Amino acid sequence: MLDLLFHTQMSLGLGQAAAVAVLAIIVAQFAASRGAKIGREIPLVLLRGIVQVLLVGFLIAAMLRGPWWTGIPVLVVMIFIAATIVRRRVPELPGAYTLSLLCMAAGAGGVLTVMTLLGIVEPKIIILIPVGSMVIAQNMNIQSLFLNRFLGEVRSHRGEIESALALGAAPERAVGPYLHASFHASLIPATDNLRSLGIVWIPGMMAGMVLSGTSPVYAALYQFVILSMIFIAGAVSCMTATYLVPRRIFTPQQQLRRLG
Amino acid sequence: MTTNAAVLEARDLSRTLDQPGGPKSLLRNIGFRLDQGQVLAVLGPSGAGKSTLLRMLNRLDEPTSGVVLLQGKDTRAMDPRALRRRIGMVMQQAYLFPGAAAANVRYGPAQHGIALQDSQVADLIQQVGMAGYEDRDVSTLSGGEAQRISIARALANQPEVLLLDEPTSALDDVSKQEIERLLATLVRERNMTCVWVTHDVAQARRVADLVLKLEAGGPSGFGSPQELLHA
Q1: A168 touches chain B (CB under 8 A)
Q2: Which residues of chain A are within 8 Å of residue B84 when distances are taken between CB atoms?
Q3: Is residue A185 part of a domain?
Q4: CA nearest to B79 within chain A
Q5: What residues of chain A lie within 8 A of the CB of B150, using their CB?
Q6: How many structural domains comprise chain A?
């Protein structure tokens, strides 16, 4: 119906965005009227989302004319911003920003570097930035889940952890069961995405590739590659965190810090 | 090591927390000296700083000032893990690790590279009155049974000093009496030096050689039960 009102691709896109934004606001207001704690911030969130994604669109359009490596600083900046978002999820964790930055640099940064060097991700701006941003964004979610779950486990098992310390356990050993539980829990969405791929859902990127005329079979294989990269990046960042995070929650005298 | 060194000595121990609203004193100017086999009861109301004191003795918390000496040596110069093996602790709740009772008993020595023999584990579990419970899953134990296993777990490290942080306060009356008797017997039989935190005056009178009374984070009395605890 919208294509009857809008005749250029840009105007059609803006019309589609406005239509879904209005629908989202209506749904949020309805939910708020039923007692849900959403509503007021939704218009702002939607506005912020559209501005951010438009900026990226303009940025990619501008960068398409430049060499591929100009995408690298963009991805690096994304990792820095992602680390600030993870830190907000765990404000009580000392050094959360540096920790998240290191973990995502190892996870998303490491995977994107290796995949580009292997030629699995083509070094083209049009591929590097969308694929990179997907890997970084999902890595950020996995990292937030890991740290959030881990700190929750530490808070609710303080007695067990201090009992282990009191028996002479090393800090890493005392929190070992909670690191493993958090590692497992944080990767559940990524593993479930792989498990249900094509059966329960057809991811956005694959749908986009098919819509733009790519062979559906190639699009499916490429989507598998992306999801596997997300899983690998998440696993690497969480493994890095399992080594780094105990140092943040224990003092040099191997005492468990008070968290929050 | 000096020949007349106390087994455990605290000198002018204090702990202050830095908080946004200003520093908060949790404990100040605590001192005592315990020889081999002596039991010190630390008495006081909630918030008096009893647990804080205990946690500074095995360095689960760090003193802001003062010093703890174990066999005459400053505990700050010791590796915290080695110190905690030498100063065992039983907490208010058992906080057992998931799995079998035997695995809990093996835990402490395993942290120091020592694998207990099955017979040693059985012996420790028997000493706390739980013979035959080695393979029992700890999730099936009652509060009193779990506390017995936690005592066996602490003893497995063969500590020189035992810290007891209100070990009977979370138990029903019957279990409370049984655990108190068990601990008193084990401490006497092994001639262990012991710091026993309690808010129960009668319990302190029954088990202690010395009493330290705390009030609002400071000492309000130190001496024998006869001197400090009138019937």
Answers
A1: yes
A2: 165-168
A3: yes
A4: A253
A5: 163
A6: 2
Residues of the domain holding A10: 1-63
Determine, yes or no, domain membership for A255: no
How would residue B1 be classed by pLDDT, with cut points 50, 70 and 90?
very low
How far the first Cα of chain A sits from its last, in Å, is: 52
- Where in the sequence is the domain holding B110, given as residue range(s)? 8-223
For position B13, which CATH number holds?
3.40.50.300
pTM, 2 dp = 0.85
Q: Which two tokens stand for residue B112?
A: 């120091």
- Which tokens is B111 given? 């942290």
Tell me the nearest-neighbour CA distance from B174 into chain A, angstroms.
24
Ranges under pLDDT 50 in chain A: none
Any domain includes A258: no
Residue B196 reports pLDDT greater than 50? yes
| CA distances (Å), origin B25, targets A200, B22, B68, B218 | 58, 10, 18, 9
- Whether A260 is covered by a domain: the verdict is no
What are the pLDDT digits (tens) for B11-46?
Answer: 999 999 988 888 899 999 999 999 999 999 999 998
Task: Kindly state whether residue B213 falls inside one of the protein's structural domains.
Answer: yes
For residue A190, give both structure tokens.
């990524």
Three-class secondary structure of residue B191 per DSSP: coil
Whether residue A179 is found in the same domain as residue A117: yes
Cβ separation of B154 and A160 shorter than 8 Å? no
- Same-domain status, A199 and A74: yes
Q: A173 — contact with chain B (CB < 8 Å)? A: yes
Under an 8 A CB cutoff, do A166 and B84 touch?
yes
The verdict on A157 and A230 lying in the same domain is: yes
Q: Are B157 and A254 in contact (CB < 8 Å)?
A: no
Same domain, A98 and A198: yes
Tell which A residues from 223 to 252 touch B, by Cβ distance under 8 Å.
251
Q: Which of B51, B38, B10 is nearest to B187 (CA)?
A: B38
Say if CB A66 and CB A211 are below 8 A apart. Answer: no
Q: ipTM score here?
A: 0.93
Torsion sign across C-alpha atoms B92, B97, B99, B101? negative
To the nearest whole Å, the CA of A188 is away from the closest chain B CA by 23
> How many separate domains does chain B show?
1
Quick check: A255 contacting B, CB < 8 Å? yes
Of A60, A71, A167, residue with least CA distance to A113: A71
